[in-house]
Amino acid sequence: MRKTIRQTLPIAALLVGFGTGALADDGPHDKAIKARQAMFQLYGFNIGILSAMAKGKMDYDADIALEAAENLDAAANLGQSQFWPQGSDNETEGNARTRALPVIWSTFPAIVEKADALKTATAALVPVAGNGLDELKGAMGDVGASCKGCHDDYRAEKK
Amino acid sequence: MRKTIRQTLPIAALLVGFGTGALADDGPHDKAIKARQAMFQLYGFNIGILSAMAKGKMDYDADIALEAAENLDAAANLGQSQFWPQGSDNETEGNARTRALPVIWSTFPAIVEKADALKTATAALVPVAGNGLDELKGAMGDVGASCKGCHDDYRAEKK
User: How confident is the model at residue A24 (pLDDT cuts 50, 70, 90)?
Assistant: First the structure.
């Protein structure tokens, strides 16, 4: 059994690596893909904290809520000109795993409206996130809606 | 051959997943580990652009340089209170892959000096990054030194 695993692991690892892009960044756009995914990771982590508080799954803490809101706002305001090179979509061969649909590029700059909606929502969230749970909850709806608005149009379903 | 791969892939994928933490985030600190790694990914991507320009591997472009400097500064100023939970080091079992040494926690808040050195360096970089290659180069040394200062003390060698 051990021998079987050892012999087949290089092939399997290659397949897994090809599928996830987790083990290399040798595609021409992989660094950019990973940079934008890092931005999304930071969106998700900070929204996760705020959502957990809003849903009562985590105790509300004004300092942590404010920090998460500020982090989310900072991530939403990153300059993205180098994050989305032409050809870094989910249909072009050779890219790291991405769910970015080609329509992003064919309708550009339409997607910028979605990014602006997120920035507007996070700008409204920052000044209230530390003011108690009710104010936090009141500002979270627009954040969630702006995430969904972009994902609905521009992100492939999970396979 | 195809059959062999199909039969052994689940086991191999499990092993790869265990090794890299790329396929799950089920460890108690994995979300935090991935959030800080996203921050580092953004450091690296933006420093990579600026270094490529400084070394003549990429044409200097004032707008792109300024954007990369601003992104780096934004990433350096993210609030990190939730990124480094106790037990999220590279020796504690059950964590996603991390190179964060336990000394980070045993000497805390010493590491904050390193983070502050990076913030100081990026604050000096932003106003000059768009002013031409010479000014960019002049401000990159302190950025690189601050990266190295932290990595030398707090990051495990690559295996």
Answer: low
Any chain A CB within 8 A of the CB of B38?
yes
Question: Within a 13 Å sphere around the CA of B116, how many CA atoms are in the beta-carbon half?
Answer: 5
Chain-centre distance for alpha carbon A105? 18
Instruction: Inspect the interface and report whether the beta carbons of A31 and B45 lie closer than 8 Å.
Output: yes
Partner A contacted by B45 (CB < 8 A): yes
pLDDT at residue B24, rounded to an integer: 60
**Chain A / chain B CB contacts < 8 angstroms:** 109
**Which pTM value belongs to this model?**
0.86
CA distance A42 to B134: 33
Residue with token string 């601003």? B70
Burial class (CB in 10 A: 0-12, 13-18, 19+), B118: buried
Choose which CATH entry (2.30.130.60, 1.20.120.10, 3.20.20.370, 1.20.1600.10) describes domain A2-154. 1.20.120.10
